[in-house]
Amino acid sequence: MDLQASLLPPGPNASNTSEGPDNLTSAGPPRRTGNVSYINIIMPSVFGTICLLGIIGNSTVIFAVVKKSKLHWCSNVPDIFIINLSVVDLLFLLGMPFMIHQLMGNGVWHFGETMCTLITAMDANSQFTSTYILTAMAIDRYLATVHPISSTKFRKPSVATLVICLLWALSFISITPVWLYARLIPFPGGTVGCGIRLPNPDTDLYWFTLYQFFLAFALPFVVITAAYVRILQRMMSSVAPASQRSIRLRTKRVTRTAIAICLVFFVCWAPYYVLQLTQLSISRPTLTFVYLYNAAISLGYANSCLNPFVYIVLCETFRKRLVLSVKPAAQGQLRAVSNAQTADEERTESKGT
Question: pTM, whole model, 2 decimals?
């Protein structure tokens, strides 16, 4: 996705050709000069809030996990996924000030072509890498829940680290069109914008949109949904022996958090992709459509700051780490509370069986 192109203003001679800024990318409908307060105040404020909360939240996640593990963050498979999700979001959020600056400048880009390519690539890479990591998390949860014994030889920190490296590499390959076509776009008056300028918009726009949709959303959604459906079936049908209830409860907690993260991701990004596909059949979007589209972009970008709140609400382990990273002396009290909660959950599960 490309925020820059979605917010560029139309040139007076914009046309349905590769020379017109209306066709810079599959990510943006034709830009219109609308309400000044909306363009210069409301949208920058929304993106600025997302950026600030996201940087604070994801930095806190990284700090809490690393502080807990004393820099040995690769000792736990779920932590590897969590750390990398936070790093992906943080890298993207660090590029948002450039996008906000362009938005407030009515689409004009002041940072050169190299930064245009890098920021646009960071934007696209964030979405692809996040989706790939969430898919890997779902498969990991599937193995831990459905095949807890046979999967132990695969579910190792070293394997998870290798998988993460491969996913980062795959993401960089997946955004090849961005590397090739993200560039400065000349505007009337000698100014320039930043966006994805496809060589043959009439056909490339269609295929690029479908490429993004299937690779960054639809296919991962199918894999993740199938994995968690199977996980829920297994959890509802199986009964753990008394000696394994603590392990089962820990697995349930991690799985519950992973499911919530995936749900938040797909709820945040679904409106954007619905409008992306709708845009293919619209020759000239209305101003209402443009507003809806930018709202969908805002919701998608909000995903980058929501994961830390999911961890705080659903993950007791993360809450403990957060408290201990700030107040180490509370360790004994937290352990007592955790043990009491685990005992209550074990009694509840034993009654349910």
Answer: 0.81
